[in-house]
Write a structure and sequence with these properties.
Helix 1 packs across helix 11, helix 3 packs antiparallel against helix 4 and helix 9 crosses helix 11. This protein has one domain. By secondary structure, it is mainly alpha-helical.
């Protein structure tokens, strides 16, 4: 899907296909067996858990560890990051996340509060913020980064702020008086479209390969 597209129907269809694409990835990729459960936790359970902790919303170490597992399972698997996050002190995680959430809508400050945690870079920090404030901070996924910024991916705070500006602008463009399309919705739609294209291309390759074998 072209990031420049203003066709709301196209964006909504891609977003609506998100869960189906999660299931598709889970069933067709090795070591993705837990992806559906992890995605359900990240998208549905975690936001509620964080917001129930008013007036001091925060995330715990076990939740951050599960979030990291979701991020790595949906993207590239890097077990050392999971080890780092899982061993973080609970009070330190709670304090850092409280400060980060209070810093919003200052995304730069919020990311900086979280990246003091060992194993937490801008991309993981963005996932934490997106769980709490999807209307402000989208997750910094590979697929959405490529769609919005091209192939020059740098997982830095500076690059994330450019990414946020792009997705916030697209969010405003796609939102109406009766329906809000958040920056996180934009990220999910872009991810969904990229995964759909990826598996469609793989299926086409398999079909073509089968045809070649039959010709022999």
């Amino acid at each position: 899907m072209d990031f420049k597209s203003s066709e709301l129907t196209q964006w909504k269809e891609s977003l609506a296909a998100y869960e189906t694409r999660i299931e598709l990835m889970a069933s067709n990729t090795s070591k993705k067996e837990d992806l559906v459960t992890l995605d359900n936790f990240y998208c549905k359970e975690l936001p509620s858990l964080i917001k129930k902790r008013d007036p001091n919303p925060h995330i715990t170490t076990p939740e951050l560890s599960k979030l990291m597992k979701w991020k790595l399972t949906r993207g590239k698997w890097r077990p050392r990051l999971l080890d780092f996050v899982s061993s973080l002190d609970e009070d330190t995680v709670i304090s850092a996340s409280q400060k980060a959430f209070k810093a919003l809508p200052d995304v730069s400050k919020a990311i900086s509060e979280l990246t003091i945690l060992k194993g937490v870079g801008p991309a993981t920090a963005s996932a934490v913020l997106a769980a709490y404030a999807p209307d402000v901070a989208p997750f910094m996924s590979d697929e959405a980064m490529v769609a919005a910024l091209g192939n020059s991916r740098e997982y830095t705070l500076k690059q994330y702020l450019v990414f946020v500006d792009k997705l916030q602008a697209k969010s405003k463009e796609l939102s109406t008086d009766v329906e809000v399309f958040t920056p996180s919705d934009v990220e999910k739609a872009l991810w969904s479209a990229a995964i759909g294209d990826k598996f469609a291309a793989s299926l086409k390759d398999e079909i073509n390969s089968g045809k070649k074998k039959r010709k022999r």
